[in-house]
Amino acid sequence: MTEVPEPLKLETRVGLPADLRYLVEKYPREDWQTHPNLGEMARFWLQRHDMFRELGGMLKAGVADYREDKFAPHDFARWFAPRLRFFLQQLQGHHHIEDTHYFPVFAKAEPRMKRGFDLLDSDHHVIHDALERNAQAGTSFLQALQANNGRERFSADAYASENEALLAMLLRHLGDEEDLIIPLILDRSEEGLGVGI
Question: What is 18-193's CATH number, 1.20.120, 1.20.272, 3.40.50, 3.30.450?
Answer without folding.
Answer: 1.20.120
